[in-house]
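As a warm-up, study this chain.
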Amino acid sequence: YEITVKTLFNEGENRDLLSKDVKYEYCFNCNIKGISKILKLFSPKVLHKFFVKEKYDIEISYLEGIATRIISGCDNSGTKTVAWIHTEFKSKEFASSAYRSYEEANRCYNRFDKIVSVSKQVNDRFCELFDTPVEKTTVKYNTNESDKIIELSKDENVDVSFNDEIKIIAIGKIIENKGFDRLARVQKKLIDAGYRTHIYIVGVGKDQDKIEAYLKENNLENSFTFTGYQKNPYKYLSKCDLFVCSSFREGFSTAATEAIILGVPVVSVDVSGAKELLGNNNDYGIVTENNEVALYEGLCKIISTKGLMEHYKTQANIRGKEFSAAKTTKAVEDMFEELING
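Now compare it with the structure written out below.
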């Protein structure tokens, strides 16, 4: 494959991590205020002609919204188009916010040769909202560089202290959707109940100040650590006893999958992909109802039940092998070959 990664803006920490064999291009040097509204003035075909100069065998919109609208304008003969969906759409309005209307969003999605969702639940919701033929849709799990994750996790150079406590980690942007504020409230309940737990949040975001104010108000600062953004979150993840997903919504939690790959037990609220990852009967981890009380009870259960944490550590190691880079990458490559040769 000859691969070009093209972004709308020349931003993002992970640009430096691209392979030297991947060609990187961008449309604008920096973010432009109101870009979504500006781009709605032009049709998808005009946008595609402006942004995509070369002809490709396969064009992929790897993010919902603007990118999908642009790639849907491709009318090159012989080019196959793919749209990736990473989130469970709440409503028609939510799903079509980057378009002129729901009707335009529906037309755009129907122009694609394949619609890929990151979990079955995400796919099912998409099919409920749009009239795209079911045979055009498929589910492909996110690829995680499993060997690299395992290697990076061995790094002992961490800038926080890990004490003799039950260490619980969460990873992601510190924004409302991730539910870190309710995780702070759950931590208060755990401490009040006599559990010696410590929460580590790997990430940055606008809600951190609000959460820190709550922690200070409730004397929890010594049991809650923000590590900031980390290029290598795995060295923190591997040293913790539990990973927790407290999100209100997910497509298929990459961080939870990475925890499983490292053999770290997972407790997750019921978001898209959680039961696919951990099993409908809590086979490989614990899935709770998506509310604060249930999350607290799930954490209490795994912490207080003798042998349960070790059991889920073993199960995580078993399940993690199903998400090796070799397996998930081959599934995507097979789809590409089928598109080209089919």
